[in-house]
Structure formats: structure tokens, C-alpha cells
Amino acid sequence: MFAYIVRRILATIPVMAVVAIFVFALLYLSPGDPAAIIAGDTATVEDILRIRAKLGLDRPVYIQFGTWVWGLLQGDLGISIFTNLPVAKLIQQRLEPTVALTVATLIVSVMAAVPMGVLAAWKAGSWIDRVAMVFAVLGFSVPVFVLAYLLIYVFAIWADVLPVQGYVSITSGLWPFLSHIILPSAALGMVYAALIARITRTSMLDVLAQDYIRTAQAKGLANEQVLIGHALKNAAVPIVTIIGIGVALLISGVVVTETVFAIPGLGRLTVDAILRRDYPIIQGIILIFSGAAVIFNN
Amino acid sequence: MMPVIAAAPRLGAVLLALGLALTPADGRAQAAAKTLRFIPQADLRSIDPIWTTAYVTRNFGYLVFDTLFALDKDFQPQPQMVNSWTVSDDKLTYKFILRDGLKWHDGQPVRAADCVASIERWAKRDQFGQKLIEAIASMTDTDDKNFTIALKTPFPLLLNALGKLSSNVPFMMPERLANTDAFLQIPEAIGSGPFKFVKEEWVPGSKAVFVKNPDYVPRKEPPSLAAGGKVAKVDRVEWLYIPDVATAAAALNAGEADWYEQPPADILPVFAANRDVAVTTVDPLGNMGVLRFNHTLPPFDNPKMREAVLNLVDQKDYMRAVAGDERYWKTCAAIIICGGTPFESNAGADVLLKGPNPARAKQLIQEACYKGERIVLLSATDQPIVHGQALVTRERLSAAGLNIDLQANDWGTLITRRASKEPIDKGGWNLFHTWTSAPDMLSPALNIPLRGNGSQAWFGWPKDPKLEELIDAWFKASDPAMQKKLADDIQTEAYKEVPYVPTGQFVVPTAYRKNLNGIIIAPVVFLWNVEKK
Fold first, then answer.
1. Sheet holding B287-293, edge to edge
2. Sheet of B82-87: strands edge to edge?
3. Which of A134, B13, B23, B74 has its CB 3.0 to 4.6 Å from that of A173, i.e. a possible disulfide?
4. Strand, helix or coil at B436?
């Protein structure tokens, strides 16, 4: 088993190497020059060229790539061109909010969606089923930012029970943490919950049509025991699979959610870095996301 | 699952009680009262206001650093870190004495040597500074409080240079930081300003924190623009960068922020119903829209074509696109900005003042032998002020028969492409829009797009020896009347050769909660003197 795990981990290395080359090439070929952004609107061409030289951006691409890879092999993700801070430190600063948001969204979504899907399957054809599926359609249809604005208006402005924006670490208090994470995770979780609810309903319907379920009912077991103890357990495989695949949805939705709620997470760090061409950050984050995706799928 | 669901309400109550128990005690209310939460115009990406000209870093600089001189509300230089100075009769030797009690944030005293090194570093990046350095024979510190600037030729604007208002501001730094290469960033922001930067709490892209500098000794005069006493009336300043405009407005309305520096015009109605929020203009001068030509490529290497465009411009169209509400814009033909500034003038601006003249434009286009060549107009969709102007230009110029190719990307791509001197078919350009803040246009010394020094000039590279001669003469003029006359001559020449077209003047209102007092009316945001009731 240990050997198997080691083999799987080692197999990620060529994948990561390809990702590294691809990311570097993409950034090198894309338009934009961080030196021009740094120099500012009133700079001259000479200013920009000198800044490029100081940042090493005028060196041949193979030398820039080699320098970066050499640093990577020593665990150094480089220094942000703009802030002069280590990329590792910036990522570390932003990791907790994104992980907290992702985990909270997963919990909220699963806890809302699975019961909803079970109920919809159990009461298939009834108004409960229809309400649940309308929710699912809305979840797919309403963009995250629209839902986010609605939630902010209702809970933060009109009812004034939750904050509008920001993130507070759990180390600063449980309620401050929860109060800041509730709205973002509800907004981001809607599409995720919709997906899980639909898959749960479909899977449950398949299982509920099976003979052993009829047998369990005939034996006089309570509905809860039949649904949870027998049906859900057997319907769980596709549900768990979709929860895993849906994490990819979360990663893309996290960017929008972090922007609307001003959460200092990795999603926003990535977008900001792309807009200003902060190459070391872009390269570092994509490598980390790729590594996480590879490990997660393994 | 069902038993868990049934237990959820009880579980929730337990968690809430635990959470409240774990929430720190409520000294937060008092701390909040002395903390100014400010939503800045952009994210603070760099802490070196010499390395970058970004306005947000300039504003950061005003919190953390100080200057030798500073402009007052009449745009006259006043001493700030300097206690007194003398000028020799031949105007070639300036001797400065620093104020007592000046300290860096690391506790070290401010020395004259720090100031000399800071001026040298600033001048390597700033064009006004470069003009000053050309005139300097030597700059020496005679002891810790005294330094001397010896000139080769008189430089009447020396104090104006040392009190420059906007990027790059000649901020003073410890010598060890000022000795950093001017094209690399300083490693830390140690200044002598009224606030200290708390680097440990800095989350780039989200939050920057400053605390009151207890060692700062403000001047006794009342604050006047960038000059006078800089009294920090709050203990802590938090810059909260909220990229989403609607969220930022909601945060201000909900009291999670105290001041939103530059809300876009279309979000202002959101504040109308909130009696606790004021929307006003604290920057009466605002900004000027700019339409810039590439003078090195056809067709705008031909002055007739540039004059043709000038005859097509209606500033009202541009300003409606940029600022909307007429309260926030005006037409302005002064190259050196309108609003009671020292060199404001309409000299030579008849074409713009009379309004568009399509017939004249058509005649000029014919005289220039324009044959329908493609004209590349760069734009940036993530900059509404830029893109709004570009759309108006496309419509106006296309209606006059010019073949406009609007190429819209993002700002990062635009500012990369405009540095290219290549022809159109190799990624070059003919036109782009931007805007400039009033402090960067207050005089011929500061107005960078005005310069006609060819390949050394700002993007577009106009070459106008006569304009350069006039600007040089202006630098040397010691008499205010002569400066004004030369400024008029400069403007007249500028409207003849058209290095760029001013597209109108607009202000960006600010929004803040009404418990704030003491906001200084200025074209740059200053956070000293601001207090929370």
C-alpha cells in the first residue's frame, strides 16, 4: 500500500512539470508588461525598460524559466514583482479564507442538498418534489454574484444581522468568523447544492425502485430507516462522486464570491495577479492549484 | 441523518453560546471610534512612492513620509520639514535648516544626509526632479541639520520642486533606504510622517493598516492643502480595498467603512437615502481627459490631421460619457487645468472653445491627403474613463470618414502596447485615451503630455522644438508675470501643434459618513486632520 502511494505521488511529478512549462509559456506569450504597470501612467519608455532590466524580465526566456525552476526545486516560489513579498507568504495569507469558504460551502451545500434530494425522491411527483427541483433550477440559473447581492441586501442592509463584507479568522472568535462566512458560503453553495440535490434525487429514485427496498418496507421498517439505512447508503456512490467533482465548480465560483464579499482569498489573489501581470504569483498559484487537483484526483 | 437533523437546533444554540463566549470582550466599540476605515481608489501594491507613480502609493506616501516643502491651497510652497532657509543674492546657493525633533519611525533622528540622498533618488525618476538636478552643481549636508544646494544656473522653481504635490512626490527617507536603486523598490516603508505603516498587518489586495506616530511633531500652522500642521486625529487607519463597487457602497451604508474615496458616478444614488452618508467633492480640480496621438506614425505625424481631430472634439460628449451628471464635469480648454489655478488660460484655444467644426475638419483631412488608412485606437474595457472616451472618439472620427479600428483590451495591455513604436501592422497604435489628475497638470513643469522632446517625450513622442524652448524659458523665469505670459505662449503653441487634445475636466465625488470631520479640500486625499465623532 505504501509503495502504491509513493508511486502515485511520484507520478504527479511529470504532470506538474508539464503544468509548469505550460504556465510559463502562456505567461510569456500573453500581452502585457508588469514593468509598464509598475512605472505608471506618466513614465517614459526608458523608465519601463530600466525596470524590466532590474526585474530580470529582459533575460532570455530559457534563463528566466531555469531560474524559476531552480527556485522551485528549493521550495522558493519567488517574490511578487509588485509587493516585493514572498509568493509563499502571500499564498499562506490567503489560504485560510479560501479553505474556510470552501469547507463552509461544502458543509452548507451538502447538509441542505442531500436531505432535499432524499425528500424529493421519497415524495416524487408531489409538490415537495417540485419545490425541490425549482430550487435546483434556480441554483443553476442564478449567477453567484446576483445571489450574493440579494443576500447582502436582505441580511446585511435591510435586516442588519450579518456583515456586508470581509473575513475574520476563527482565531478571533467563533461568531465573528461564522457571521462573515454565512452569506458567502450560502451564495457560493447554491449552485453546488442544486447539483447535489438533483443527483441525490436521481440516485435515490433508482434505488427506491429496487426489490430490496420493497422487502424492507414489507418487513415493516420505518420510513426513516428505509430511506437512510438502506436507500441512501446504496445511493451514496454517485452522490459522493459528484461532491468530489463539484469541488472544481467551487474553485471557479470562489473567485466571484471573494470579490463580491471582499474576502482576501486565493481566488482574488489570482485574478489581481493576472490583471497586473505579477508573474511569480500567477505561476505559484497555478502550480499549487494543479498540484492540489492532481493529488485530490489521485 | 434524520436524528442529526432533528438535533440541529439544539446544536446551533450550543455553538452560538460558545461563539459568544469565545468572542473577545467589547473594547472593540472604543477601538472602532478611533479607527478610520477608508476604502481607497485602488489596491496598495507597492510601498515605494518613488519606484511607482501609482496614485494609491502616492497617497500611502503622504501618510508615512514627509516632505521638505509642501504646496498650500494657493499652490505656493511652504516649509514642512524645513525650519528655515536662505537664498544667496545671486540665487545660486540655498541653505536649509531642518526642524527640531524630526524622527524616523525606527526612532533614528532625521539627518540632512537623509534628505540629500532622498532628493537624489527622487530626481532619478521624476522629470521635474531631473530638470532640477540639471541645474544643481552640488548638494551637501554640512551637519545633521543643515544642507546646501549649490546651483549652476538659477532655478526659480526649486522650492516648488521640493514641494511637488503629486507623483513622484519628493518624500524624504532614511539614507539607507534612499540609497536603494531608484528602479528597485525600497524593502520597507520607514518615514517620518504622521502615521506608521504596520507591515505585519498588510494583506495586499485587501487591507493596509497605519497607526498614529506618537513621535511626530506637527507644524503649528493650520492645515492648508499639503502644507501646515499634519495632526493625526485618529489612532489607527485601515485601508479596506473592496473591489466590488456595490459591496463597497453597501459597506459604507452599513457603517462598516467610514469613507469611500472614489465611488463611480452610477453608484452615487445608493447613498441618497442614507442620512448618515454625505456625498461631496473634496477635490475641486479633479481630472482632465486626454486624447493622445502617436506623432511618429501616419496619419497623425501630420499636424493637419491632429488639427482635424481637434475640430471634431466636443468636450460635452466626452464628459457625459465619463462623468454623466453635469454637476461633476465641465468643459475646459486650459492645457494647465481650470479652476483658479495660477496658469489657467484660454490662449490659443479658439478651436476647442468654439465647438466642433466638421466642415473645417473635412477640409483639413483632405489637405492632409488622408486616403482611408487604418487608424488604431487603443482602449481598456476595465477602465471606464478610458473606454467611455474611446467610444466617443470612435463615433466622432468615424462619422468624419476616418477609418477607426478600436482595439479594446485591458489596461495592462494598453499601457504595454502604447510603449511600442512599431508600425500598425506590427502592433503599433495611433490613438489612446487616458486621464490625468489636476496636480499633474498645474504648470508646464508638471504637465508631462505637453512636452515635445521627441523620443524622450511621453508615449506619442511629439517633437516640437519651439514648445521645448518655451518650456525651458518658463523654468528659468523668476517673475510670476513672465511665467504667466510664457504659459500662455506654451498653450498657444500646444494648440497649434496639438500634442494631445484635452477632452474635458471632471471630478470624482467622495462619500463618507457624517461623523467624520476635518476632511481637507485638496486634489490629493490627506488623512491627517480627519476625526471621528
1. B329-330, B500-506, B287-293, B431-437, B374-380, B403-409
2. B82-87, B93-98, B146-151, B136-141
3. B23
4. strand
Of B18, B204, B247, the CB nearest to A83: B204
In 3D space, the residue among B19, B140, B50, B58 whose CA is nearest the CA of residue B439 turns out to be: B58
Q: Take residue B186 and report the three cell numbers written for it.
A: 525600497
How far from A103 is each of A285, A291, B219, CA to CA, in Å? 19, 19, 53
Which of B2, B51, B419 is opposite residue A48, by nearest beta carbon? B419
Distance CA(A243)–CA(A226), nearest Å, equals 23
- Taking a C-beta distance cutoff of 8 angstroms, is the pair A82, A276 a contact? yes
B4, B47, B382, B416: which to substitute to probe chain A, counting the most A Cβ within 10 Å? B416
What's the DSSP call for residue B426?
A: G
Instruction: Measure Cα distances from A247 to A243, A255, B433 in Å.
Output: 7, 13, 42
Tell if the CB–CB gap between B125 and A82 is shorter than 8 Å: no
* Burial of A18 per CB tally in 10 Å (0-12, 13-18, 19+): exposed
Cβ atoms within 10 Å, residue B13: 10
Chain B residues lying within 8 Å of A156, measured CB to CB: 250, 254
ipTM: 0.86
Give CA separation, B516 vs A177, B133, B260, B527, in Å: 28, 42, 12, 11
Q: Which residues of B445-459 are buried (b: 16+ CB within 10 A; e: fewer)?
A: bbbbbbbbbeeebbb
pTM for the structure as a whole = 0.89
B353 φ/ψ angles, rounded to the nearest 5 degrees: -70, -35
pLDDT digits (tens), chain B, 533 positions: 444 444 444 444 444 444 444 444 445 555 667 999 999 999 999 999 999 999 999 999 999 999 999 999 999 999 999 999 999 999 999 999 999 999 999 999 999 999 999 999 999 999 999 999 999 999 999 999 999 999 999 999 999 999 999 999 999 999 999 999 999 999 999 999 999 999 999 999 999 999 999 999 999 999 999 999 999 999 999 999 999 999 999 999 999 999 999 998 889 999 998 999 999 999 989 999 999 999 999 999 999 999 999 999 999 999 999 998 899 999 999 988 898 888 999 999 999 999 999 999 999 999 999 999 999 999 999 899 999 999 999 999 999 999 999 999 999 889 989 999 999 999 999 999 999 999 898 889 889 999 999 998 999 999 999 999 999 999 999 888 999 999 999 999 999 999 999 999 999 999 999 999 999 999 999 999 999 98
Q: Residue A268: which of B52, B205, B251 has the nearest Cβ?
A: B205
Let me know how long chain A is. Answer: 298
The grid cell for B327 is 454637476
Q: Which residue in this structure is represented by grid cell 489521485?
A: A298
Angle among Cα A68, A274, B294 to the nearest 5 degrees reads 105
Contact between B162 and B68 under an 8 Å Cβ cutoff? The reply is yes
Instruction: Please tell me if residue B458 touches chain A, with a CB cutoff of 8 Å.
Output: yes
The single residue listed with the C-alpha cell 477640409 is: B363
Residues of B in contact with A232 (CB under 8 A): 1
| Residues B204/B45, Cβ–Cβ less than 8 Å | yes
Cell of B508: 470624482
Distance CA B510, CA B261 (A): 5
